[in-house]
Design brief:
The complex is a heterodimer of chains A (about 550) and B (about 300).
Chain A (H helix, E strand, L loop, with lengths): L1 H22 L9 H4 L16 E5 L15 H10 L4 E3 L5 E3 L2 E6 L5 E6 L13 H12 L17 H5 L5 H7 L2 E5 L2 E5 L7 H4 L10 H7 L15 E7 L3 E6 L13 E5 L4 H9 L5 E2 L7 H5 L4 E14 L7 H9 L3 H9 L4 E2 L27 H10 L6 E7 L4 H13 L4 E7 L1 H8 L9 E7 L6 H4 L16 H11 L4 H16 L7 E13 L1 H4 L21
Parallel strand pairs in A: 1-10, 14-15, 14-16
Antiparallel strand pairs in A: 2-3, 4-5, 5-7, 6-7, 8-9, 9-10, 11-17, 12-16, 12-17, 13-17
Helix pairs in contact in A: 11-13, 17-18
Chain B lengths: L1 H28 L14 H10 L6 H13 L14 H36 L4 H15 L2 H15 L12 H31 L2 H8 L4 H30 L2 H6 L5 H11 L2 H29 L1 H7 L1
Helix pairs in contact in B: 1-12, 4-5, 4-7, 4-9, 5-7, 6-7, 7-9, 8-9, 9-12, 11-12, 12-13
Chain lengths: ~550, ~300
């Protein structure tokens, strides 16, 4: 009797667990995955495949698909394809008319007038109007939305004041320099002439949202069931942390030019699993390859590499390492090419200045610094080091704990040992690390590592980091001449003139008499695995953006 | 028994209050700004707007009081980082996946672990015993992330068994993560059952039972197994709690949309409300699992029932 009770209980426990398990699963439908796994018929190569479907790995769950709230690459890449940007950037990052068919900049450079196409349309049939933009942008700027990227609009008259308003906010909203003159004319008043403003419009923060939808569904308007979009693709389904599938929107104004009919998207965060999923044929495109896999993957036909608009650098706390010769010596001692070849491994470019290659005007910046050699110049480094009166011998180097940084730091630690420096490497997890570097940096830090990826396409976006009151300047470097030149560049509309000022700024940082508050190491590359069937047309631009309207699947 | 259960349920309230207070304090002790997700600095205006929107500009005791009040009404608040989502959405949508994963792994561990341990004990010091114990020691020693990666390598890429590398969309996708997660607790159960069974086998009452002529099979099922299962039940509660809540590595590697993945990223991103909400949820699970164990205990061993009520 007793035994029976026992077994009955065990059986009940097991059965109830099984029921629980069965009851809460199985509702994930497969969303046409099979079609996406690179299924192409065998015909002669290069021809368009009959089935224009791909499966990509988005990598992570996009934190928000609200253009006002999104602040990361994944969200941005999805938004740029389900919405219709005012302008797009071509391969050389020049602005190209898109939903804005033309624009005019006033004499003084402070008023920009955009003319919208008349065939812009929301997926519910409403036309896309200038009022949509006025409302959307003011919504993003509003203090109630509390958008991280509201500062993208700070170049517009009255935007920063409205974003920071304590009282009388409605009146301040009216003063923001965005005005829908009529359905198709949008007038923008800037605080100063900003020649990069047109390029900046390609940023996802400047996309419009559909007012009635946002007002009806509030925070939940971005769910697949609610969202109204206006771009070439529609958000078909969004299973959080699992998948986002897009389908071509046949009513889009230029739908005939779009080849892809469907883009299935997975969210595989783990780099190793993503590579394995690619190798198993489950996905056609994935980025974020683990460093240790790169040498092997490089040998495959699927490996693709793109230059990025970003700089990987070490910053000096100039209050601790006070002698510029020590900073120069430390920079001369490291072998950038060897770090790239042996540690970073993705064919990054050794940085010869802070502004990365590919930036418009790069040639004129002449960032060929004598202190940033491709390979180490240990002799000169030692000579310089000998001239230092009170060298800082014990160096604390702070890193965040993402993969790869420590290996680079160890190589640099070795190089600096040659200069008689003893380096302690400290690692912290990201959020804590950011608190430690400030600005101002924690006093214990002598050197820290960081990167900067461009938001918009102008060297200003990189060089303004090193002004005295910049929120990103964790070096304690303060230079009035530098601050003055940045102000001057902001007000200089002519590209050639402005690039000349940028050249002076680079000189102050890394030129012959450069102050070396930072030591750039390399310029980023983005590495991808892509099936040969999409390789020709699936291309990232310098800002890590993908334009799905250009992708064509070819026969294998 | 009912009185015992009622009292235990009542006790969960102060426990949860303390859990909230501790998590609340700890999260604010570690440095970090939930709104600064990248190296980009946040202008002062924007930081203030964000603090105000999420109530972080209030003194801590006010934030705590408000949070407790919300929890009492089953509202876990909005995520600070995933700006279009509430913690309630996350729990509702993703907790079932973790429950399923953890529950299946637990089932796997029980169904394979107990017989493995029993066989080992009955054939102690035979090759069968050594093989079984070698297998469970290995299963116990290899960390689950390695098991997971090796599984994908061998069972998906090297030999195609029809399993996908990742996802949670059909039974094929569930086999590898469940086994990878269940392997260590299975090994633990096997070792536990073997140990206690060997001990039980040497007890006087077993000898008595045999001496009075009971059939061996009946001795095993009636006396040995039953008494050997008590420590297993003791271990099962925390194990189940751990499997449901501690599967974030497996969720990460197999890209399973469970709460574990949210938990880890939320801690890293300082997403206070998600961390708090999930901690409260996990505390409730562990409490419930332990309660179930105590009830089972009372049924398996009547002596404990009398002491506890």
């Amino acid at each position: 009797m007793r035994i029976k009770t026992l077994w009955l209980l065990l059986a009940m426990l097991v059965a109830s667990l099984a029921l629980v398990a069965a009851g809460c699963g199985g509702d994930d439908d497969d969303g046409g995955d099979a079609a996406g796994t690179g299924a192409t018929q065998e015909e002669e190569g290069g021809a368009e495949a009959a089935e224009q479907v791909i499966t990509v790995n988005w990598g992570t769950e996009p934190p928000s698909l609200d253009p006002g709230l999104a602040s990361d690459t994944t969200s941005s890449n999805i938004l740029q394809n389900i919405m219709d940007p005012l302008v797009k950037l071509d391969d050389d990052l020049n602005p190209v008319a898109n939903l804005a068919e033309s624009w005019e900049v006033s004499e003084d450079g402070k008023t920009v007038t955009l003319t919208l196409r008349e065939d812009g349309q929301w997926t519910n049939g409403d036309p896309v109007t200038a009022e949509d933009y006025e409302w959307s942008w003011k919504r993003t700027i509003s203090p109630e939305l509390a958008a991280d990227y509201a500062y993208q609009f700070y170049g517009i008259e009255g935007a920063q004041e409205y974003n920071g308003c304590e009282s009388n906010c409605a009146a301040m909203a009216d003063k923001v320099g965005v005005n829908a003159v009529d359905d198709r004319t949008l007038e923008i008043t800037l605080t100063t002439p900003q020649p990069w403003f047109i390029q900046q419009l390609a940023h996802h923060s400047f996309l419009a949202v559909h007012r009635p939808t946002v007002e009806q569904f509030k925070d939940k308007w971005t769910e697949a069931a609610n969202i109204v979009t206006n771009g070439p693709f529609q958000l078909e389904s969004w299973q959080h942390n699992s998948r986002i599938d897009l389908v071509k929107w046949d009513e889009w104004r230029d739908a005939d030019s779009v080849k892809l009919t469907r883009v299935n998207g997975r969210m595989i965060t783990d780099g190793t699993t993503a590579v394995q999923a690619f190798e198993a044929g489950e996905i056609d495109v994935t980025g974020g390859l683990p460093t240790e896999e790169i040498p092997r993957l490089k040998e495959t036909e699927d490996y693709q590499q793109y230059p990025g608009l970003g700089t990987y650098y070490y910053g000096f706390n100039v209050d601790n390492i006070t002698d510029v010769n020590q900073r120069r010596a430390m920079s001369l001692a490291i072998d950038r090419q060897s770090i790239i070849d042996n540690v970073a491994q993705a064919d990054q470019l050794p940085a010869t200045g802070f502004t990365p290659k590919g930036m418009p005007g790069f040639e004129e910046l002449t960032p060929d610094s004598p202190w940033l050699p491709e390979t180490a110049d240990l002799e000169q480094a030692k000579t310089l080091m000998d001239q230092v009166q009170n060298p800082k011998k014990d160096i604390t180097l702070l890193l965040n704990d993402s993969p790869g940084h420590r290996e680079i730091a160890v190589a640099i630690q070795d190089a600096w040992k040659e200069l008689g420096l003893s380096v302690t490497i400290k690692q912290q997890e990201w959020a804590q690390f950011l608190e430690f570097i400030g600005p101002p940096p924690d006093k214990s830090i002598d050197v820290f590592r960081l990167g900067w990826i461009g938001d918009y396409v102008d060297a200003m976006n990189f060089l303004e980091l090193w002004t005295s009151d910049s929120g990103n300047n964790s070096t304690n470097f303060k230079n009035e001449e530098y601050d003055g030149l940045v102000e001057e560049a902001r007000a200089t509309e002519d590209n050639a003139d402005r690039y000349a000022i940028y050249g002076q700024l680079e000189d102050i940082l890394h030129g012959e008499d450069g102050q070396m508050p930072v030591m750039p190491i390399y310029w980023y590359t983005y590495v991808h695995l892509e099936r040969p069937t999409v390789q020709d047309t699936y291309n990232l631009n310098l800002l890590d953006q993908i334009d799905l309207t250009k992708v064509v699947v070819t026969e294998e | 028994m009912t009185k015992f259960i009622v009292r235990r349920v009542f006790w969960t309230i102060p426990v949860i209050l303390v859990v909230i207070l501790l998590t609340f304090g700890l999260m604010r002790q570690i440095k970090g700004n939930p709104f600064r997700t990248s190296e980009r600095a946040i202008p002062a205006e924007i930081q203030r707007n964000l603090d105000r929107k999420f109530g972080l500009d209030k003194p801590w005791y006010e934030q705590y009081a408000r949070y407790v009040k919300n929890v009492a009404t089953f509202d876990l608040g909005p995520s600070l980082v995933l700006r279009n989502r509430d913690v309630n959405d996350i729990v509702k949508e993703h907790f079932p996946r973790s429950l399923e994963l953890g529950g299946l792994a637990f089932l796997f561990a029980l169904v394979f672990g107990i017989p493995l341990g029993a066989v080992s004990a009955l054939k102690a010091n035979s090759w069968l015993d050594y093989a079984a114990m070698f297998f469970s020691n290995v299963g116990f020693a290899i960390p689950s992330f390695l098991v997971a990666t090796l599984f994908i390598y061998f069972f998906v890429l090297q030999f195609d068994f029809g399993f996908p590398t990742s996802g949670w969309t059909g039974w094929e996708s569930k086999v590898l993560p469940v086994v990878a997660l269940g392997l260590a607790p299975m090994a633990a159960f096997a070792r536990l059952v073997r140990g206690t069974m060997l001990e039980t086998l040497q007890q006087d009452y077993i000898r008595t039972a045999r001496a009075k002529g009971l059939r061996w099979r009946r001795v095993i099922s009636l006396h040995v197994l039953r008494n050997s299962l008590i420590p297993v039940v003791t271990a099962a509660g925390p194990t189940l709690g751990f499997l449901i809540t501690g599967s974030f590595v497996i969720e990460q590697i197999f890209a399973i949309p469970g709460v574990g993945r949210y938990y880890v990223t939320a801690v890293q991103a300082r997403d206070y409300s998600v961390v708090m909400g999930l901690t409260v949820l996990l505390a409730v699970i562990v409490i419930v699992a332990n309660l179930v164990v105590d009830i089972l205990y009372g049924i398996l061993d009547p002596r404990t029932r009398d002491v506890r009520t």
